[in-house]
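lol ok so funny story. i was supposed to be doing the assay writeup but got distracted and ended up predicting the structure for this chain instead. priorities right. anyway since i did it might as well share w the group, maybe its usefull for someone
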Amino acid sequence: MHPDDQQNSFETFAAYMADLNVSAPLDLFYRLKLKNGDYRWFRARGLAQRNSSGVLLRVVGSLVDAQDEYEESELRRLQALQHESLQGSLQKINTIVSSIEGIATQTNHPGSLLWR
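and the output, tada:
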């Protein structure tokens, strides 16, 4: 597991296992190191099954390669940041254009009388 993902993953899993009233499945994203040394994103989903006394019987789940899902999510996040940045730039440009138009109107108004 990638060192940056260990603490959150272990803490989330421990909290999930300690909560006797949880009914939702565990859902984690983390990176695992492949044999070639590269890391890939995986999604782990699991559900703790307990008896009526709350004693843990088993945990069932799956581990699925989520690299494509992660990359798509990251791309959407970056596009949203880029869109936000462009919106801010557009607002600044509109402010500048409005100022230039105002200056041009003030400057050209008296001069227009000379050319009539």
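The longest strand covers residues 39-50. The longest helix spans residues 67-114.
back to the writeup now i swear
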